[in-house]
Design a protein that fits this description.
mainly alpha; 5 helices; 0% strand; extended
Length: 154
């Protein structure tokens, strides 16, 4: 849709296509920046809590927990900076699992739970969403894998 609207001047990131002086554009950019920051904390919390449980009871102090969580954040930063094609690896994980969790599984579970009670329209809509999700997952996975292979070969 972006290409249809903007043609050849379409940028790879949608926020670069927004008008520069608009307040709405600035809100969209800051929301885009805040989104990964808030998601990172939610994603890393189960791992951090599991590591904290491995500490002996006498070492489970607030200061040790802060040091452990900070070390975890720094270690993920180092890994992200040291892997030359980390963005492609994340794109692979995102295209494979995000489509599965966001589109395919909810519709499949809906159809499995309702079975014969779902209307024809619900079944057709869920089937269409599953088909689009599988197609997007395959295309995204292929694109990410081909990018990784190209980067690894050079």
């Amino acid at each position: 849709m972006g290409y249809k609207m903007l043609g050849e001047s379409t940028e790879s990131q949608f926020t670069l296509n927004l008008p520069e002086n608009s307040v709405v554009s600035k809100i969209a950019v800051w929301a885009t920046v805040a989104n990964p920051i808030t998601k990172y904390a939610l994603t890393i919390t189960p791992l951090a809590m599991s590591l904290e449980e491995l500490l002996p009871r006498s070492q489970q102090k607030y200061s040790n927990i802060i040091i452990l969580r900070s070390a975890l954040v720094v270690s993920t930063l180092i890994i992200a900076l040291s892997v030359p094609f980390f963005a492609l690896v994340m794109a692979l994980i995102g295209s494979l699992f995000a489509m599965l969790v966001t589109y395919i599984l909810p519709c499949a579970c809906f159809l499995a739970i309702l079975k014969a009670k779902a209307t024809w329209y619900q079944t057709a809509t869920c089937s269409f969403i599953i088909t689009v999700g599988v197609t997007c997952a395959c295309v995204g996975t292929y694109s990410s894998l081909s990018g990784i292979v190209q980067n690894y070969a050079t």
